[in-house]
Amino acid sequence: MFKHILVPTDGSQLSSDTSRRAIAFAKETGAKVTFFFAKPDYPVAFYGEGALIDPTTPEKFAEMAEQQAKEILSAHEAEAKAAGVACAGTSAVSDIPYEAIIAAAEQAGADLIFMASHGRRGISGLLLGSETQKVLTHSKIPVLVYR
């Protein structure tokens, strides 16, 4: 059925839980997994582990974002490899994550996007919406939302 699954990740616990389920799903179906991380572009505020990181130069910011992407992606790749699932990891700089997710799925040749439900609540949900909702609305590739 599905042969190549794109799994967007942001390093959150929900995203990590979703990654583990995607790995199990891929193993059951014999699919390959590509993990994807959308890196923010300078000068957007970057939040990590509850701390605001405000580098002084765009180069330093890019270096820190790349390091975070590598750490998150390598952790997911290690889990997939331990489960015997073929995998790869990729990242891209984007301030519009849902567009980057769809583009990454298309570039990887994925036939399924397997992602967490990142529901926002209250006013932020009304104003910003959910990246998952935006992917569901705009993607031509099937999307499986894991809760």
TrEMBL record:
It comes from Sulfuritalea hydrogenivorans sk43H. Residues 1-147 form the UspA domain. This is UspA domain-containing protein. It holds the Pfam family Usp. CDD domains: USP-like. PANTHER family: STRESS RESPONSE PROTEIN NHAX, UNIVERSAL STRESS PROTEIN HP_0031. Signal peptide: none annotated. Belongs to the universal stress protein A family.
